[in-house]
Amino acid sequence: MWVDTHCHWDAAEYGQASATWREQAGQAGVQLCVVPAVARSNWATVAAWAHAHGDVYALGIHPLCAAQASTDDVLALEQALRAASGDTRLVAVGEIGLDAWEPAQQTPQAQAHQQTVFESQLALARELDLPVIVHTRRAVDRVLAALRRVGVRRGIAHAFSGSVQQARGLWAQGLHLGVGGAATFDGAHRLHRALAALPPQAWVLETDAPDIAPQWLYVPRAQREAGVAQAINSPAQLPRIGREVAARLGMAPAAWARLSTANAVRALPRLAPWVAAA
Ligand SMILES: [Zn+2]
Asked: Residue 36 Cα, ligand 1 centroid: separation in angstroms?
């Protein structure tokens, strides 16, 4: 059995069929999914999803939603987290972080605002003693500096795609590294080096579905431009992704399924009763 530490089940790609997609993932061997939020507008949705489908969730403001968020939203997040503190399906603050890739968000003002929204959420996580699920696209060093500054020492650097040195820095800070479909590409040499360099205890599995299709689902740009639709990724792909990651780690798939689940519980301790119950 496998745990998907990052899936956006409320994404438009699944629409009305999300329950069917979830069932297929269960049949494929995925026992539990962590559903991160992206903005105030979907906090209630991800919580309701988790309760309805036996999954768990996180609440936060995604860096690409930070531009629309105000200090009022951060206050609302604090209230929502405190209100959900007795909800055992709430497992983290997330998805939060920094994104230095999305072109529209690269003005100095947008970056400064992202940083403020991120650090105030880190402070909330520390105060409420919750782990974080962080997005670090092209911004690993700045995320790590913020984690150090605020003193957050537990969580997941999701969709990790940095260098070996950056992986070591996050791991030394106490964060686990999320790996998924990106590792299935033959050309992902930097990620493969990081997988080989860090201990297997450092990694947790995720799909980031419906994004980050594995190599076998990926539709190259030329085909997309010719009208072929990008395939929708889903947690049903996680066992196959897990087997490929196991090979990179030099582990048997069953042993890696057990270890990656144990790693997920270390990163997000509130997963423990749900993993045991599944
Ligand atoms: Zn995400």
From this structure: 7
Among candidate residues 208, 200, 108, the one with its CA nearest the CA of residue 116: 108
CA 247 to ligand 1 centroid distance, Å:
25
Render pLDDT for 55-66 as a digit per residue (tens, 0 to 9).
999 999 999 999
* CA 60 from centre of chain: 12
Q: How far is the CA of 8 from the centre of ligand 1 (A)?
A: 6
CATH number at residue 60: 3.20.20.140
Name residues with Cβ closer than 5 Å to ligand 1, which is an ion.
95
Type of residue numbered 235: P
For residues 63 and 111, the answer to whether their CB atoms sit within 8 Å is no
Q: Element (H or E) spanning 59, and its range?
A: strand 56-59
Number of structural domains the chain divides into? 1
Decide: 156 and 34 in contact? Cβ < 8 Å: no
pTM of the model: 0.96
DSSP H helix total and E strand total for the chain? 11, 8
Number of residues assigned to the chain: 278
Question: Which of 19-33, 101-115, 261-275 is the least confident region?
Answer: 101-115
Dist. CA 78–CA 59, nearest whole Å: 10
Rounded to the nearest integer, the mean pLDDT of the chain is 96
Distance 212 CA to ligand 1 centre (A): 10
Ligand 1 midpoint to CA 96 (Å): 9
pLDDT tens for each residue of 186-241: 999 999 999 999 999 999 999 999 999 999 999 988 999 999 988 899 999 999 99
What is the domain range of residue 228?
A: 2-11+20-277
Residue 27 CA to ligand 1 centre (angstroms): 23
